Amino acid sequence: MAEETVTPEPEIVKISVFTPLIYVCVVLSIFITFSIIYRKRRLQSLTKVEPLFKENYTAVLYQHLKDQYTNKDLPKDQRPHEKVMKAALLRRAVEAIRRSMKLKENEPVFNKLYQNGLIGDDIFKQYQIQIKFQELELKDIVTECETYKKGWVQTFFPLAQEICFNEALRRRLKASDDRAETFSKLWETYADKSEKSLESAKKVESKKTVEAVKAEETKDKVAEISEKVEDVKEEKEQEQEADEKHQGGDNDSSKSKKKKKNSKAKKN
């Protein structure tokens, strides 16, 4: 009989129960470290981005007052009153509304410039980050408003919006007054310059007229002098002609006298 081939039995690898748990823990730890590093780098990149607006002093002031308001170690007299906190929160909301409205007004401009390639990715990213920051600012204001009085948000934001509009109107009126002052100053300066230029032009014209009069006078004098010289020349010529005629007459008389003497001598 042929020998039967014995098929080797596969070895059964025994895996511990802790192996998948360790694998899952390693994967989770890698994922967590990656997310932490990614968030840190993203936060660093966001902190490097310069904001479009200046520092929000109203938010800084409110935070400072809130630290004093919530500090129980301070006596009650040194802590700010609740009305002061509400007024500071209202000022913070007014500034947040103003900035958010400014961003919404300039949104089509930024989109158009970015589509045409006139601004880079960094500026457009800066604009998007500023929009998200303002949204977070408004949400924080809503939560702070609810801490003082529930349902106050319904009257709080319309009041803040009205204050924002009134301040914008005041700024425009002030800007128009400032423009009027600047234009009046420019008008005065240009009027002074025009007057000075007119005076200088008049002086130049008067000088030109004086010079023209002097030139005409000199021409007249030169003409008179030339006429006098010509008269003197004519007089001299006439005198010379008269002298020549006189000399010719004397010669004729002397010749006639000589002829008479000769005739008398012949007769004698």
TrEMBL record:
Annotated spans, Disordered: 224-268
Entry annotated with the keyword Transmembrane helix:
yes
Which portions of the chain have biased composition (kind: Basic residues)? 256-268
Q: Which residues cross the membrane?
A: 20-38
CC per GO annotation:
Sec62/Sec63 complex
Question: Where does the source fall among the domains of life?
Answer: Eukaryota
User: InterPro entries per the record?
Assistant: Sec66 (IPR018624)
Q: Enumerate composition-biased segments (Basic and acidic residues).
A: 224-236, 243-255
Which GO biological process categories is it annotated with? post-translational protein targeting to membrane, translocation
Task: Provide the protein name.
Answer: Translocation protein SEC66
Q: Which organism is it from?
A: Candida albicans (strain WO-1)
